[in-house]
Amino acid sequence: MDIDLLAQTESLFALSNGHIGLRGNLDEGEPHSLPGTYLNSLYELRPLPYAEAGYGYPESGQSVINVTNGKLIRLLVDDEPFDVRYGELHRHERTLDFRDGVLRRDLEWTSPAGQRVRVCSTRMVSFVQRSIVAIQYEVTPVDAPARIVLQSELVANEQLPPPGNDPRLAALMEAPLEPEETYPNHTGVLLVHRTRHSALRMASMMEHIWDGDDDVLVTTDAHPDAGSVTLSTTLEPGQRFRLVKLIGYGWSSQRSRPAVRSQVMAAVTAAKHSGWDGLLAEQRRYLDEFWARADVRLDGDERMQQAIRFSLFHVLQAGARAEQRAIPAKGLTGSGYDGHTFWDTETFLLPVLTYTAPQAAKDSLRWRHSTLDLARERATQLGHTGATFPWRTIRGQECSGYWPAGTAAYHINADVSDAVLRYVNATEDLDFERDYGLEILVETARMWISLGHFDAAGRFRIDGVTGPDEYSALADNNVYTNLMAQRNLRGAARVAKAYPDKAGEFSVTGAELDQWSRAAESMYVPFDERLGVHPQATGFTDHERWDFDNTPKEKYPLLLNYPYGDIYRSQVIKQADLVLALHLRGDYFTPEQKARNFAYYEALTVRDSSLSACTQAVIAAEIGHMRLAQDYLREVALTDLDDLHHNTGSGLHMANLAGVWLGLVAGFGGMRDHDGALTFAPRLPAGWTRLKFGMTFRGRQLRVDISPSEASYKLQDGEPLTLRHHGQKVTARVGKAVRHPIPPVLTPAPVHQPPGRPPLTGNPVFPWSNA
Amino acid sequence: MDIDLLAQTESLFALSNGHIGLRGNLDEGEPHSLPGTYLNSLYELRPLPYAEAGYGYPESGQSVINVTNGKLIRLLVDDEPFDVRYGELHRHERTLDFRDGVLRRDLEWTSPAGQRVRVCSTRMVSFVQRSIVAIQYEVTPVDAPARIVLQSELVANEQLPPPGNDPRLAALMEAPLEPEETYPNHTGVLLVHRTRHSALRMASMMEHIWDGDDDVLVTTDAHPDAGSVTLSTTLEPGQRFRLVKLIGYGWSSQRSRPAVRSQVMAAVTAAKHSGWDGLLAEQRRYLDEFWARADVRLDGDERMQQAIRFSLFHVLQAGARAEQRAIPAKGLTGSGYDGHTFWDTETFLLPVLTYTAPQAAKDSLRWRHSTLDLARERATQLGHTGATFPWRTIRGQECSGYWPAGTAAYHINADVSDAVLRYVNATEDLDFERDYGLEILVETARMWISLGHFDAAGRFRIDGVTGPDEYSALADNNVYTNLMAQRNLRGAARVAKAYPDKAGEFSVTGAELDQWSRAAESMYVPFDERLGVHPQATGFTDHERWDFDNTPKEKYPLLLNYPYGDIYRSQVIKQADLVLALHLRGDYFTPEQKARNFAYYEALTVRDSSLSACTQAVIAAEIGHMRLAQDYLREVALTDLDDLHHNTGSGLHMANLAGVWLGLVAGFGGMRDHDGALTFAPRLPAGWTRLKFGMTFRGRQLRVDISPSEASYKLQDGEPLTLRHHGQKVTARVGKAVRHPIPPVLTPAPVHQPPGRPPLTGNPVFPWSNA
């Protein structure tokens, strides 16, 4: 138990179903780094100040809040509060169980007065009953009889630590919840609150079940911001006392106090009916189904194998039951980035969820769709037609306070469209395509037309935008943006033609379709003939190279130590941008261009963002830099587990965690899905003996099994499926796997990173076992 | 007396000597738009907030404050307070006298109770005694005897109107002054205050002299934030009571309370010694000398003639006694732009002051020099060598809260250097060159070297900067910036070579000199071969043309109605940028390039800044668009007089006022001063019969007299001077003027402005007479 690592463990051990999120705080509440209980999209508004205001700057932002904390169970042993900082801690183990979907804690502690107890707790956020958190808390005296008191609490407006200067940390908002109602009963408490400015109503309720009712004195206490149920009993050595705490959460922006209160009471009653064992069994069943679809097996690297499951589990937790609410960049594991959603969701998380939990991908895209009216308003405000999605938001309004790295990152609109096209292709969910996808595609296509223009040479240019790389801004013809906009425009035209009646409802005309197609086909993609590479944007390769040699290690991340102006005018890359285009629009580039581009940008990319290494892994693997790909994948896998970016404490990097799967499946599996064709080009790095993964594609379960020499493809169910393996047509069927040899890798010319910026190998900050 | 025009008249009738500034508030204080008493560089700090913070953003800004108001004289007539809003105002005239340097007011008013009085006041801020304000206040009953009470006040922390949403308005700071001392005596009061955060100490003192001591009851009252001297008397009809109020101001960041107090007492005592008539005589003498040097006579346009003297008078007021403090963009006429100084000073004001009041130009440049340590610190913070002057400041620290239109506008460094080179050339002040100029030139040259780089083709590029035009930002190779940096580098190398010992003190090496010269000679200046024009910056001419046709009139200024992103990515120009390069670096361009460039940019320039029309006037005249030049000059002349930008109320646009002189002398006089050569190419527009102006050049008084057909040059004093007239060598001497014919103008191809943006003709908002 290393108290210095509390922040990290609170994030790593976070539990969530996408609707409720609990940081891995200790049951007894203290010590803590950041107490965290979150409800998806329950936010408070805060003013966004500007030293110099500008037209279209958002005036208020949305910040996720720490809601009423129901996970508190304090223990007193002979009146001595259990606190790991006092007495003697003999053993303290916490285990995040990916199969059972619970966080287990097992410890033995001797109080300062000499009483030794064993405590086992199991905490769960139910995937099946999405309003429910359940905790089983067991305490057993070891050597001598003991008086035991358990105080189970509900606490609103917990005091939070003051925020630092790092802009990535959430704004502190003191006491955002105004109490509305307090309902105690014999064995539980219900509290209703409302956020002060955003006017969102929430209810939280705790209920308890325990063993040996006769010997237990129970008292209940309730105040507007705190409820507690106290259980007092005396136990013999070896006699275990077991408490099950059920917590229900509900919230609404519209429903009445009684409605929200009743909704939570009903949820808790249903959970009580299921009982602890029932909840546990449901949770296991839900996860069994997930792992059957989505598990990735890697032989030859046990540590990586564990990191893979860790990442898949958290990606599932972030998206499983988000249900038409946003998936934040840090899921519900911390308040980092104010709980905002960015392009991360569509570009990194949804490609994983589309193939492993397609319903979650659909829900997420339906959330985007639900924000279209706001995006249309924003487009109008910005002088565009169509819709402009916000760079960062919770509910849908733009919350970015620095437009050159916010609103100017128009690529998010193409990223959303790309996710729509991918989801529909992977699922053949034509209802979604017609009822949701079409409108997104149409409105974003319109935005591109109004943003860009045809130049004198007839090329369609998109000027003054910021691409994925946030170390450049306001450039012309960012290659990634232009190529993704091209896909957006083509997709919009194709889908609008497929549903002429529906498209007619959005007033799409034939002339408009022609315009989209013409812009797509005339899309300008700059190329630097001198260097033989694509500039990230017009003029990029003319800029001065960043002085890497004179940049000491401690000056990274650069954005915290150098002015934007200096960074923007230099050739230095925070995160894959052109290289991300090589992945997502790999269909545009020749293999030679990919190799040259990768080598050029590799030498400039410092990875001050967690949204880079996975893309570099994918393209390194495609080009044949197998060792480098492996190293990048390791960095991806360790980013949170070893806190490589030093901010895991404020929440996990969900997109990066999704990047583990992308690195494996798109990288070493060579999976691509351009324009509806599912293709593979698998190849394992030295040391790995087997990589096996499953994907859901068009209603079928595909299993891919890769060894150093060959790959096999088979279906678990459904009609045969035609794929490609290293360019060759392959038909996967139920039953016998088709096996294909893997062609030898042609060793490419070596590449290098900026001095001091090779892939991070990790430096285990705490032991994580291989169990 | 139009109360709706109070804001404008308060600015237009402002008095200042560059050290003290008084807005033209009514003597009785009310009604007012914005009460204003300013002391140059007496500012308060205020936090600069950011929705998303960034490295190098200034954390606090400096805002000019409204200091203790000493100009208040309230009048009671038979206990009825004189207020123009009540009773009947028969006559109310105010006259700003450019020869006497006073503001006169003459009115007759009948009180609600029927008492008619005449009031004459004369207000002066002394050019000669720079700490002194003097007011003569005369009141005469007209029809019947009257009891008259005059309350003369000193008021600190006056309540100010709340600021609007316009970012150009000053931040409101309530009660910035903390009282330190209060000193009443029989006939005066002295108050000492200190600013809360910037810790600047100021003292203000009033003293009074009046007629007819025997009949006057005097009482004095003093509180920490208010002092008053009340004089009560009874007058017969036609009997005049005359009060002279002397106000002294002093402030210091370092000196003690007694020192500051004594300094003000001494100043007031000296002024008392001079007496009202003495002060008036000194003021007249000071201005006689100025007008003898600097007056401009224009025959054929009386209204313009008056506007010329109005502008010259205000430019003098802004700079005369600034004495090593900054000259703010609005002088000391209002709190607009927070009282900050920008590049306006060096690029627009100093070219006028250099030739009309060279001592003021020198003082201003010595102020810049005094901020070099701060500019070096800022350069270090930004990762540059040398010095980086702030975009906006009072004391020298960067106060810009939006870096793409602040810190990124590096051209200010070249603008300062250009002003140094001009001043030295025009004055041959070699002491200044060695002791001040050299260091500025060296440190700015170093900054350019570290900012720019040599590209693969050996060209010196300066990327990611913002030029003068604030409707573009963060562009590569802004032509204006690059050409001005070239002059900066050349000047630094030349001057450093001239003072090798002094240069050695700044560690200038031969290698460094070579580098400056090489960068200057390799300076990259982009050219668009397709269009045959210089792009404002690399890629500018590829951008989409702003949709002028669909921009309604009320959407100007664009920056208040469209997002920066939209504006930046379009071809639309706020203010002369490339066209300013045509003026200041006219030596670089061929006449054909000038004509083509002017035509191209004329069609894109909307003049949402007041720093544009004068430059367009200058280049229009050079190219031969005489009528257009005249129209632009009219716009310049009317900008404040007719409130064309709708913000004259927050202060006069000093650079624009300087632009009147520039439009005349550089425009119709064709005066240029590239690299030390003084040249003229005069040419009058239709309707003007004569333009005559004086300039101080290398210690001589040069008089230029232009008629439609010829120009004559002569000196008032000194050795003969070689000039050029339309390219032809001319020697001006004392005595007989040399006359040269003006070659006929070749009518150039027509140019046009964006729809709805022709030169503004003005729409007189209040009558200003031709007296």
How would you characterize the overall build of this protein?
- The structure is a homodimer of 771-residue chains.
- The first copy, chain A, is an alpha+beta fold.
- Chain A folds into two domains: 13-292, Distorted Sandwich (Beta-galactosidase, Chain A, domain 5); 295-695, Glycosyltransferase, CATH 1.50.10.
- Helices cover 31% and strands 24% of the residues of chain A.
- Chain A has 17 helices and 30 strands.
- Chain A has an eight-stranded antiparallel beta sheet with strand order 8-9-10-11-18-15-14-13. In chain A, strands 7-6-12-17-16 form a five-stranded antiparallel beta sheet, with no helix packed on it.
- In chain A, strand 13 and strand 14 form a beta hairpin.
- Chain A is globular and about 85 Å long.
- The model of chain A has no long low-confidence stretch (mean pLDDT 95).
- Chains A, B: It comes from Pseudonocardia eucalypti.
- Chains A, B: Residues 309-661 form the Glycoside hydrolase family 65 central catalytic domain.
- Chains A, B: Keywords: Glycosidase, Hydrolase.
